[in-house]
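Long-time lurker, first post. I've been practising inverse folding by hand and with some scripts of my own, and I keep getting stuck on stretches where the structure tokens seem ambiguous. Below is the full token string for one chain I'm working on. Before anyone asks, I'm not after the true native sequence, just a reasonable design that respects the backbone. If someone could post their per-position residues I'd love to compare against what I wrote down in my notebook.
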């Protein structure tokens, strides 16, 4: 968004540290009452001289506990259609009035947070593009995010892990071995088809245009495959998958893996994978986007 819509000063200030991984960013879109219905967001930014004063709450903000900056959707006007009163602000996470509260997810890890903004002063030069046009920048970002969420590389690695397990570790829970092999083949075919689709799209895409419904198709297919692979892995591992210490994956403390080494992390993949059909815009919403754009429904 900064690269495409930012000012020259914003590009000079923010892009080099992003490229060098010296500054980390979080996405402040969702709010307690505004997820799928994002245009209903209520965090307000009121202009006072050369600052906006921002008050409101964000939720599900991934990895903001490590972020230096948060790009944030805020309401700068109540007067027009909800989408037209939204602006895109860059907020320094060290600003007075910013509070981060962790949310522990069911995999036992700390991926997401609540962010409370209490009269946070943000310089007006930190608005991206035009005031009130934040909705179109936000949609541009989301469609690019969905392309990434196909995550075919990750799924190939997970499927490779499953195939190695099946080849080397007997299962105490799978009785229909031929049926299980068919399941693996079906997932592998779907994965190759998705990868071919992504590569063909990457070859033909016009970087000056926001991605089309292809992004929604990739998001649906990619997230469903991730879930299918992690489910199959648990089915194969059976009771061996149950033992899980979040620290052995995240290195939060020095422990040795609990349970068999080749089962380590499988339950985490499964539990965290439940979220992949929700984040980046839920799969139901992606189906709505496709049906509206392609079928005119
Ligand atoms: C792990 C994780 C990380 C996240 N990271 C971030 C982040 O970094 N930044 C950020 O801003 N947000 C983040 N999110 C939030 C995410 O974008 C929202 O959870 C998502 O958009 C859904 O919104 P919601 O949770 O409010 O659910 P709701 O919008 O309340 O939806 C609840 C259910 O209703 C369905 N639904 C809603 N409306 C419709 C409709 N019109 N038609 C059909 N079905 C519908 C949804 O599909 C869903 O199943 C994250 C979420 C998760 C789980």
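-- Answer (accepted) --
I ran through it position by position. Result:
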């Amino acid at each position: 968004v900064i690269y495409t819509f930012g000012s020259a000063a914003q590009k000079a200030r923010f892009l080099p540290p992003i490229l060098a991984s010296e500054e980390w960013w979080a996405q402040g879109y969702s709010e307690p009452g505004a997820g799928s219905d994002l245009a209903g967001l209520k965090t307000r930014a009121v202009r006072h001289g050369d600052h906006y004063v921002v008050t409101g709450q964000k939720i599900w903000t991934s990895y903001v506990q490590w972020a230096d900056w948060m790009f944030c959707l805020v309401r700068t006007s109540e007067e027009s259609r909800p989408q037209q009163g939204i602006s895109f602000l860059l907020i320094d996470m060290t600003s007075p009035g910013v509070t981060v509260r962790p949310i522990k997810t069911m995999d036992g890890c700390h991926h997401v947070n609540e962010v409370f903004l209490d009269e946070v002063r943000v310089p007006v030069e930190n608005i991206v593009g035009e005031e009130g046009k934040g909705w179109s920048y936000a949609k541009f970002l989301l469609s690019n995010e969905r392309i990434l969420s196909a995550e075919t590389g990750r799924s190939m690695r997970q499927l490779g892990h499953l195939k190695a397990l099946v080849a080397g570790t007997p299962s105490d829970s799978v009785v229909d071995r031929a049926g299980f092999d068919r399941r693996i083949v079906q997932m592998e075919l779907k994965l190759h088809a998705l990868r071919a689709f992504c590569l063909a799209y990457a070859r033909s895409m016009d970087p000056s245009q926001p991605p089309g419904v292809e992004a929604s198709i990739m998001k649906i297919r990619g997230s469903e495959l991730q879930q299918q692979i992690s489910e199959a892995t648990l089915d194969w591992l059976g009771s061996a998958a149950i033992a899980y210490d979040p620290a052995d994956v995240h290195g939060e403390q020095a422990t040795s893996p609990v349970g068999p080494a080749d089962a380590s992390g499988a339950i985490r993949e499964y539990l965290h994978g439940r979220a992949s059909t929700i984040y980046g815009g839920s799969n139901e919403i992606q189906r709505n986007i496709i049906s509206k754009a392609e079928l005119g429904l």
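A couple of notes from the structure itself: The longest strand covers residues 112-123. The beta strands are 25-28, 44-48, 51-59, 69-75, 86-92, 98-103, 112-123. Happy to go over any region you disagree with.
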